[in-house]
Every structure is written in structure tokens, then in C-alpha cells.
């Protein structure tokens, strides 16, 4: 089964979840703690190139709280010296997080580098919890005392590698989370974000969209905590561009680091219905483009691939077709996403963008009738019988139903979910797409044992 951490059977929620960031020196155990907290929820994604997750950002859950967690230690800023790195990481945590977990090595005690971070955290108004790590057994707790004197936050003895003390720590973290925010937008509003490497033209595109004829930009930007959104209306459809603030905020050293832009992109993706994956036609497709688009796919968002700067490419009548073939080849897992060639600069073909956004959003929210779905599945099985395992046991599909939208998610009730392998799942997905369309949206198929 293709598991995806963003997917459950409830309707998607685009209100931002609170963010916990872990900071601390190298080797104190940040990533060990991160992995513990994230636990089983680390995305197990399709085993295909281009769809991998950097383990610096994931979601966690504690009691009733869902939150995002960032391991700032995974965000290296060029080849700056250690102290500089830590300073940036701490600043980044302060900027991005609602709560900061400062991790230290209890066995080593406080070091000069720890003190450096403490100074920065002192100046921030964000709540801090101190995780005194490597306290593998209670006899070590006397080591805690020197950390109490820091005066930056509550001190918790933990052991990342043994999973000790994290419950108390998370209780405290959760108590600092802001109260749930109301979703600021109407259900019918299409939330879109533009993702892509620096300089592909995301800001220019936003401006070009907002500058289009008959686009009415709302006077009051919608704000949710740290994101600044731009709501607008075109042809009676409400849209909001999510998190352009992140794109405007320039000049910081970490803005140009790859993992930071990935983090920014992820935050925007979480809150979007439709993601525009922007590519620079001049430069072609590089690995980072694939990675970023892969996140949107994993997150189950509707996707439009936008090839910008098409004005800057020398073309003949075959260029577009060739470029699209290249995209299809490089982004195989996005075979459902429409590709639009345009220029934010000359505005050529820009008028095709919002209609495409609307179309993929409709697919993302489309429901199909159960009996029609079952007819499609029965026909599919008749044409290409279900597989058997080595022991000759055959997959039997009793019944199929669509359980949710955003993305469309189908549950197949079967004799044994393990018998549904990738290739047959793919076959069924193609049959469902052939019957119903679902252009621009991933669809999820879950096999469940018939009870
Ligand atoms: P990071 O650089 O801060 O992310 O640190 P890591 O999570 O990579 O951990 C650094 C080292 O400390 C690794 O060898 C871990 O196995 C070890 N470590 C992490 N947590 C604990 C712990 O609670 N107890 C002990 N004894 N070792 C730990
Ligand atoms: P962002 O970092 O992705 O937001 O990219 P920007 O919107 O800041 O654009 C980066 C650069 O590309 C700027 O110099 C833009 O003027 C230029 N640019 C953006 N769109 C186009 C386009 O369609 N054609 C050309 N030739 N240049 C563009």
C-alpha cells in the first residue's frame, strides 16, 4: 500500500498546523529525537526516483495534537563555520516555529556552542523546552542541574535512543501550541501555491496572474500566523495564493539554501489545494525540480506543471512537444498533471493558467458514484484478471468505494490487501482515470481486508 503521511480519510485541512523545531549542536541527538517523535509516520512513499523525503521536516502527533516538526540540524548553510551554522539554525527555528526544542547532551554538560544558541533563544519570544538528551537511566539525572540555570525554558531529561522522557516533553510542547485557528477561507475558495527553485519566476507569475484582466484582488490580504496570502477573484471563482510572503522575503543567507526552500515549499503545499510546480524553460529540468514536485504529489495535492520563461527559448514547431516529452520522462509519477507553457514576462498564454487551476481543483474534489465505480472495477478485472501470489492465492476485490476527495481516495475491500501489488494498483488507477478523468490530481487506492 502506498502510505502517505498527509493522507487519511478525513477531508483535508488547510489550516496550518503548529510547528516544533529542534535546535542544538551536532551530535546531541536531534535527529534521533526527531525520528522518535515522527515514529511510524515518516512517509513511506512510492519506491521511485524523485519521490524521496528529506528527513528534516515531517509531521508528528501527540495526544490530540498534530504538528510539524523540523530538525534544523539537517539544514546546513553553505560551508559556514559551526557557530555560524548554529546561529542560522536557531534564527530559522525562531522564525518558523511555534515552539522550540533546544537539545543538549546531558552527559557532556553545557558547552560554549550551547551557550551561543541560548543567547539567541533568550532574545526570542518563542516558548522553549530544553531536552537534556542521552539520559539513558535515572542515575544520570544529577547532570540536569546545570541546565536549570539557563532560564530559557523547562528542562526535561530524555533519551532519544531509548525513547524515554519524550512524553513529558511533548506534553509541555503541546501546551504551548496556539489554539486551533479557524480556517480563514470559504470551502469553495481554491488555495493555490507556486513552488519551484529560486529564480524560476514564481513571484513574476503571481504578479502576472494578479495583473490579468478581470482579476479582482482583495484589498485585505488574508493572514494566518506567519503566512501572508493574497485572495482574489476571477470569473466568479475565489482563489487565494498561499504564502507569497516566503517568496518576497529575500536576502537572507538561508533563503538560497536548498533545504530551506524545500521547507518553505512544504509549508505552502500543506495549505494548498492546487500546486503549480514551476520550471524554468531556459534552464530545463534539474533534480531539485523533481524533488519539489514530488512533495506535492506525495501530499496528494492537485498539480499543474508550469513551464515559465517560454519567451526565452528558441523554438520551432516541435520544441513544445519535445519539452513536454522530456517532462513526461522526468516526472513519470506526475503523468496526470497538465503542462502549461507560458511567460510571466510577456504574459503570453498566461490566460490558460487559472482555467487549468480550476479544472484540476475540480478533479481533486470529484466524487464518483459507487455503482459506476464498481462497474469500472469489474470490467477492469474481467479484462485483466487479478494477480496471484506464489502460493497461487488470487486477489479478490469484493467492492470498491470512494471514501474521500482532496485527493480522491478509493478503498477496495479485498480478501488480502498484501495481494494488491504496485503494478495492479497502477492498472486499476489507469482504468479509473480512463473512466472518470481526474486530470491533474493524484488518486489514492487503499486495499482493506473485507471484514
Ligand atoms: P544530531 O547530530 O544532533 O542529529 O545527533 P544524532 O541524532 O545523529 O545522534 C548523535 C549520536 O548520539 C548518535 O550516535 C546517536 O546514536 C547518539 N544518541 C542519540 N540519542 C542518544 C541517547 O539518548 N542516548 C545515547 N546514549 N546516545 C544517543
Ligand atoms: P522566483 O525567485 O521564482 O520568485 O523568481 P522571480 O519571479 O523573482 O524571477 C526571477 C528572474 O526571472 C527575474 O529576473 C525575472 O524578471 C525573470 N523572469 C521571470 N519570469 C520570466 C519570463 O517569463 N521570461 C523571462 N525571460 N524572464 C522571466
UniProtKB/TrEMBL annotation:
GO terms for molecular function: GTP binding; ribosome binding. Transmembrane segments: none annotated. InterPro entries: G_ENGA, GTP-bd, GTPase_Der, KH_dom-like, KH_dom-like_a/b, P-loop_NTPase, Small_GTP-bd. Residues 18-181, 190-365 form the EngA-type G domain. It comes from the Bacteria. Signal peptide: none annotated. Keywords: GTP-binding, Nucleotide-binding, Repeat, Ribosome biogenesis. GTP 1 binds at residues 24-31, 71-75, 133-136. PROSITE patterns: G_ENGA. GTP 2 binds at residues 196-203, 243-247, 308-311. Pfam families: KH_dom-like (PF14714), MMR_HSR1 (PF01926). One of its GO terms (biological process) is ribosome biogenesis. GTPase that plays an essential role in the late steps of ribosome biogenesis. Associates with the 50S ribosomal subunit. HAMAP family: GTPase_Der. Belongs to the TRAFAC class TrmE-Era-EngA-EngB-Septin-like GTPase superfamily. EngA (Der) GTPase family. This is GTPase Der. The lineage of its organism: Bacteria, Bacillati, Bacillota, Bacilli, Bacillales. The gene is der.
Amino acid at each position: 500500500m502506498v502510505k502517505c503521511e498527509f493522507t487519511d480519510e478525513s477531508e483535508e485541512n488547510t489550516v496550518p498546523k503548529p510547528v516544533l523545531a529542534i535546535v542544538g549542536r551536532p551530535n546531541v541527538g536531534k535527529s534521533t529525537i526527531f525520528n522518535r517523535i515522527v515514529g511510524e509516520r515518516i512517509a513511506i512513499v512510492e519506491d521511485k526516483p524523485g519521490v524521496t523525503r528529506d528527513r528534516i521536516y515531517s509531521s508528528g502527533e501527540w495526544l490530540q495534537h498534530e504538528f510539524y516538526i523540523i530538525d534544523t540540524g539537517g539544514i546546513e548553510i553553505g560551508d559556514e563555520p559551526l557557530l555560524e551554522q548554529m546561529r542560522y539554525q536557531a534564527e530559522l527555528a525562531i522564525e518558523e516555529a511555534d515552539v522550540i526544542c533546544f537539545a543538549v547532551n546531558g552527559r557532556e554538560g553545557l558547552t560554549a556552542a550551547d551557550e551561543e544558541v541560548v543567547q539567541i533563544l533568550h532574545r526570542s519570544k518563542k516558548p522553549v523546552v530544553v531536552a537534556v538528551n542521552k539520559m539513558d537511566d535515572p542515575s544520570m539525572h544529577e547532570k540536569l542541574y546545570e541546565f536549570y540555570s539557563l532560564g530559557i525554558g523547562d528542562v526535561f531529561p530524555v533519551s532519544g535512543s531509548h525513547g524515554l522522557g519524550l512524553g513529558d516533553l511533548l506534553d509541555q510542547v503541546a501546551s504551548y501550541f496556539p489554539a486551533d485557528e479557524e480556517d480563514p477561507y470559504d470551502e469553495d475558495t481554491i488555495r493555490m501555491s507556486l513552488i519551484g527553485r529560486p529564480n524560476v519566476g514564481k513571484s513574476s507569475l503571481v504578479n502576472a496572474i494578479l495583473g490579468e484582466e478581470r482579476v479582482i484582488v482583495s484589498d485585505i490580504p488574508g493572514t494566518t500566523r506567519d503566512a501572508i496570502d493574497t485572495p482574489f477573484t476571477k470569473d466568479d471563482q475565489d482563489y487565494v495564493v498561499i504564502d507569497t510572503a516566503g517568496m518576497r522575503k529575500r536576502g537572507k543567507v538561508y533563503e538560497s539554501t536548498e533545504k530551506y526552500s524545500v521547507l518553505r515549499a512544504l509549508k505552502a503545499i500543506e495549505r494548498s489545494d492546487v500546486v503549480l510546480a514551476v520550471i524554468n524553460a531556459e534552464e530545463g529540468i534539474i533534480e531539485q525540480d523533481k524533488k519539489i514536485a514530488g512533495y506535492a504529489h506525495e501530499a496528494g495535492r492537485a498539480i499543474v506543471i508550469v513551464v515559465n520563461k517560454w519567451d526565452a527559448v528558441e523554438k520551432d514547431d516541435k520544441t513544445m512537444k519535445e519539452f513536454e516529452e522530456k517532462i513526461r520522462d522526468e516526472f513519470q509519477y506526475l503523468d496526470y498533471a497538465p503542462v502549461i507553457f507560458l511567460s510571466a514576462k510577456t504574459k503570453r498564454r498566461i490566460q490558460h493558467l487559472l482555467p487549468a487551476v480550476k479544472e484540476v481543483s475540480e478533479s481533486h474534489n470529484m466524487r464518483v458514484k459507487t455503482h459506476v465505480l464498481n462497474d469500472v472495477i469489474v470490467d477492469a478485472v474481467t479484462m485483466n484478471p487479478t494477480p496471484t501470489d506464489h502460493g497461487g492465492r488470487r486477489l479478490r476485490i469484493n467492492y470498491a468505494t470512494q471514501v474521500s476527495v482532496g485527493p480522491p481516495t478509493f478503498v477496495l475491500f479485498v480478501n488480502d490487501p498484501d495481494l494488491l501489488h504496485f503494478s495492479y494498483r497502477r492498472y486499476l488507477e489507469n482504468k479509473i482515470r480512463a473512466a472518470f478523468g481526474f486530470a491533474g490530481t493524484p488518486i489514492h487506492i487503499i486495499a482493506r481486508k473485507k471484514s
